[in-house]
Every structure is written in structure tokens, then in C-alpha cells.
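Worked problem 6 (solution included).
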Amino acid sequence: MNTTAFRATYGAIFGAILALAILSLVASLTAPALAQPAANPAVQAAPAAQNPTAPATAPSLPIAPVSDATATASTEVTAKPLKSPAAGLSELSPWSMFLSADILVKAVMIGLAFASLVTWTIFIAKIIELSMVQRRLRAALGKISSARSLADAQFALGAKDNVLSSLLAAAMREARLSAGISSDSGIKERAASSFAEIVRSEARRIRLGMGVLATIGATSPFVGLFGTVWGIMNSFIGISKSQTSNLAVVAPGIAEALLATAFGLAAAIPAVIIYNHFSRVTKAYLELVGRSSGAAARLLSRDLDRTHGIAHSRAAE
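Solution. The predicted structure is:
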């Protein structure tokens, strides 16, 4: 699970780096076009005013010299329309990028957001469930620690429904069904088989939801990467349709693509961390279940030995 999640996260990060490299390449191609200054009409008018073919009788108008301030103002006026698309990029937000994204990219983001919601729902539900069952099982083990027989243990637990009660009930049922059989090893073997079935059933029940976390943690980065590839593809399609390589045309689509990657990582990383946490907690709980199975087996063994001791004493009398 950890190796698969690492490879998936590495692939998503590699796709994001590739998108940034493409964005940098497009920006470097458009930079020379943006850097060319516009021709100053005031400067071009000066040679025309000094044309020697003009009539001699025409009055010569004085030509005002073009100052640096005039040239700078003209350059700023010419460059002003080029800055407006770039200024619009600063207004992009995650919500606006989501609204302007392609329908498929939107579906990817919504699916990843739903997967993240499922992850945190499982986290809250499992943390409550595991804390409660661990506390109850520890308390039950403490209650039967001084019990001398299966009957005493069941009386100490009462009518509580937990895995220890199921183990004690299975031991009592096997002892009752095996009444009159002198082979203690056969009774213990059959009881151990019943205990193993109960432990496996409890392990399956307590691991419910862990498979969903594993699936989300393993597949979310790839789903986000799919949205990234689709967004970059749409960006290049937009470039071909508009027949321009302006950065303002490319940047929004790539930003939406990277947002899909971010959604994928936001869904995958918590799922992997929560899965590893619950794996450790579940292992600790199953160790308590194993201790409960051992306690029920010891009580059954005491009852069998006590029954044979009573039988021998009656035979001796």
C-alpha cells in the first residue's frame, strides 16, 4: 500500500512539474513579442518634415524635439493593452478556475472531493468505533481475570454483547455438546476451531472501510493526473484555435489542470495516512481479541479438569 501510494504521488508530482515546464516554455516564447517597443509616431514624423523635395515657398514649421518623457509616455500607452490580460490572471481563484474548467475536469474535481469526504467520514466513524471496542474489551478482560469457571466469567460480564461474550458462549456450548466424552484434547480442539472462526469474523468486521481507504489512496493521484493531462490538452487546443501563443490564453487552462492535481493529492495523502494509522490501531485491537480467546480457552480447560477431578473423587468413594 505504501509503495503504491508513493508511486502514485510521484507520478502526480511529475505531471505537475511537466505542466509548469510547458508553461515556462510558452512564456519564454511570448516574451520577445511583448518586449518589442511600438513605433513612436512623433519620431517618424520628423524625417518626413525634413523632406528636401518640399516646395521652397512653403513655410517651414518648427518641429518640436521629442523629449524622453514624451517617448516614455508613448511607450506606456502602447504597452498598456498588453498588461491587461496578465492582470486578469491575478484575479483567478480556485472557485473561478473550477467554474471555468472543462466539464470533464469538473467531474474529476467533484469525484475527488467526494472521495475526500468519504475518507474523513470513515476516519471519524472508525476512530469512535475502535476507541469504544478497545475500552469495552479491556474492561471485560479485567472483570473475568479472577473468574474460576466459564459460568463465573459469564456472570461477571452479564448480558453485554462483545467478542469476549461470544468466545465464552462458544466454550460453554462446546462443553455442553461434548458432555460424556472423556477426550479433553478433542473438546479443546473443537473449541479452538470455534474461537478461530469468531476471531476471523471480528477481524473482518473491524477492518470494514479499510479497503475503501486503500483504494482512494492508491487511485486519487492518477485520477487527478488524468484531469491535469486533459486540462493541458484543452489549453493547447485553445492555442491552435486562437492562433496565438499569448500567455493569457495558456495560463488559465494550465492553472485548472494543476488544480485537478491538487485535488488528487488532497484526497490521496490523508487516505494513506489514515489507512496506516488504522492498521496499527486494528492490530492492537486484534491482539486484545487474541488475549480474550486465550482467556476463554483457559477457563474451559479449568472446567474440564475440575469435572474429571470430581468424577475421580466420586469413583474413589
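Discussion: The longest helix spans residues 247-316.
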